[in-house]
Amino acid sequence: MRRAEILGLPVDLVGLEEAVERIGRMLDAPGTHQVITLNPEYVVRAQGDPELARAARESELVTADGVGIVWAVRRLTGERLPGRVTGADLTPALLERFGPRLRVFFLGARPGVAEKAAENARARWGIQVAGVQDGYFKDEAPVVERIAQARPDLLLVGMGERQDLFIHRHKARLGAKVAIGVGGVLDVLSGEVKRAHPLAQRLKLEWLVRIAGDRRRWGRFPRLLRFVRLVRAAGKAHS
């Protein structure tokens, strides 16, 4: 497996198709495998959070979620990524590829959203629903126990900044074959949120459309700017 490293974090040099194939092999292997879709905000947060950095380094697959990561890999390592592998693209690709063989647990989002996402996914791809749970809980132990009892093939965790640490912290007890932090994907699968226009997706500006259309996301801009500064500083240090 070819990996690059940016600002102390790994990025696997894979495109969407190879990522799906690798996860397919994980589904047939023993143990729980963590997949992280790495975005610039994660990188910035990890600079001051050793546990978050460790989660990425110990994950079995880390994909480039966004053009910022693709740019950083090229600038800092000279490697060319085949393309982005976002959670919004990876999740439906997995559900379509493996369909009825998948037992999926949907965890996260507001009450009722995971249920809608699960029902829509079952209707569209024929997947088996192993369980659902919203992201509004404080005590993690009972949730981990529910997941472990369900023993899903695929655990989709949409809990924002909590998701990847939740998976990493409980990895040995989850009982899932593959666990992925998927951000707002459950909202999209449920129909609560629409993806950006296909043109914005092709131009790789979906992230900008999401931020511009939601004031709650405006606080992300400082982190994105800091990411650019960090990458440029690291590039100068290596030159």
Description of the structure:
- The protein contains twelve helices and eight strands.
- It is an alpha/beta fold and 239 residues long.
- It has one domain.
- The strands form two sheets. Strands 4-3-8-7-5-6 form a six-stranded parallel β-sheet, with helices on both faces. The protein has a two-stranded antiparallel sheet with strand order 1-2.
- The longest helix has 18 residues, at 221-238.
- The model has no long low-confidence stretch (mean pLDDT 91).
- It is an enzyme of class 2 (transferase).
- InterPro entries: WecG_TagA_CpsF.
- Its EC number is 2.4.1.187.
- GO terms for molecular function: N-acetylglucosaminyldiphosphoundecaprenol N-acetyl-beta-D-mannosaminyltransferase activity.
Spell out the blueprint of helices and strands.
Blueprint: E1 3-6, E2 9-12, H1 16-27, E3 33-38, H2 40-46, H3 50-57, E4 61-64, H4 67-77, H5 87-98, E5 103-108, H6 113-125, E6 128-133, H7 140-150, E7 154-158, H8 163-174, E8 178-181, H9 185-190, H10 198-202, H11 206-212, H12 221-238
Parallel strand pairs: 3-4, 3-8, 5-6, 5-7, 7-8
Antiparallel strand pairs: 1-2
Helix pairs in contact: 1-5, 2-3, 2-12, 3-8, 4-12, 7-8
Helix content: 40-55%
Uncertain parts:
none
N/C terminus separation: 27 Å
Output the number of helix runs.
12
Number of domains: 1
Main-sheet strand order equals 4-3-8-7-5-6
What structural category arises from helix and sheet content? Answer: alpha/beta
Main sheet properties = 6 strands, parallel
Overall pLDDT confidence: 91
Number of E-state strands: 8
Series of secondary-structure elements, N-terminal to C-terminal = EEHEHHEHHEHEHEHEHHHH
The percentage of residues in β strands lies in 15-25%
Basic shape: globular
